[in-house]
Specification:
By secondary structure, the protein is an all-alpha fold. It has one domain (29-205, 235-283). The chain contains 14 helices and no strands.
Length: 285
């Protein structure tokens, strides 16, 4: 059991690096999102190909449509969240995108008919208060940050959509085949968005491509891969609570790498957001 917690702790560290690498890439958000997902899918393909060949043809039409929708939602998550890092602080962006579990609760109630206990409703209100404090503080420091915070919230909402609509699909496919299918679909969606919005995919120097490869390998394959491994040994709420360390880790790394110090309001609002998420996740323990 101790080794499972060590694996989960390493996963949090690796995931926390993601926002730093995005900022270091200094490339258009859509291009960064595309390469992050596409390179991760290419790296995973040799290990998932066998399960994919056996399981994908057996999918029903409904499950294939769900796979497309899941990949599309994941693509929008990466596109909006990565774009937010150009407009607001890393600490604010990572805090707000981590409100996805709260959106999952709301979507599950609206579309799946799941009940929402009063404690969870109170937690959602607490999180909204925290997000408002973060937004107000960032607005005072930089009016343009409101757009970045909005994009981070959109990233949380689309991640929640991805989680909710993919529930049945995860049970219908082996893990590796599921992840490969969703990542490949997300990469195709992001490629179409790059073409549609004119985001260049070529012409970057080797430094940028090395950072994009690191983004695919470290937080995506490494971090999220270890999270999936942890979910097989530990309860999901425990994993979720550990992942609340990502905003803390990302904030520390942002200070070390970019000397980025967010406003005091980010710490205050962030404390409320993390408290709300802790209430929701601990309730499922």
């Amino acid at each position: 059991m101790t080794s499972a917690y060590l694996v989960l702790g390493l996963a949090v560290v690796l995931v926390s690096v993601g926002s730093i690498l995005v900022r270091l890439a200094q490339a258009p958000a859509l291009a960064v999102a595309f390469y992050r997902v596409a390179l991760a899918a290419v790296c995973l393909a040799p290990f998932a190909a066998r399960d994919a060949r056996r399981s994908w043809p057996a999918l029903s039409t409904r499950h294939r449509l769900v796979l497309l929708a899941s990949g599309g939602a994941l693509a929008l998550h990466f596109a909006t969240w990565i774009a937010s890092l150009d407009l607001t602080s890393i600490a604010s962006s990572v805090l707000l995108v981590n409100t996805a579990p709260l959106f999952t609760v709301v979507l599950s109630r609206l579309f799946l008919g799941e009940t929402t206990p009063p404690l969870v409703m109170a937690a959602i209100g607490l999180a909204l208060m925290g997000a408002g404090i973060i937004a107000a503080g960032d607005w005072a420091a930089s009016p343009g940050s409101l757009g970045g915070n909005s994009l981070a919230v959109a990233g949380a909402a689309t991640l929640a959509v991805y989680h909710v609509i993919g529930r049945g699909l995860r049970a219908a496919l082996p893990l590796s085949a599921y992840v490969l299918g969703v990542w490949s679909t997300a990469a195709a969606t992001l490629l179409a968005l790059c073409v549609g919005f004119g985001a260049p995919l070529l012409g970057y120097d080797s430094r940028v491509f090395l950072i994009l490869l690191a983004l695919a390998v470290i937080p995506t394959l490494g971090g999220h891969g270890l999270v999936n491994k942890s979910l097989r040994a530990l309860p999901a709420p425990t994993v979720g609570l550990f992942l609340l360390g990502e905003p803390v880790g990302a904030g520390i790394l942002a200070y070390v790498v970019f000397q980025e110090v967010p406003p005091v309001t980010t710490a205050l609002g962030g404390a409320l957001v993390l408290a709300a998420l802790t209430l929701v996740l601990a309730r499922g323990a």
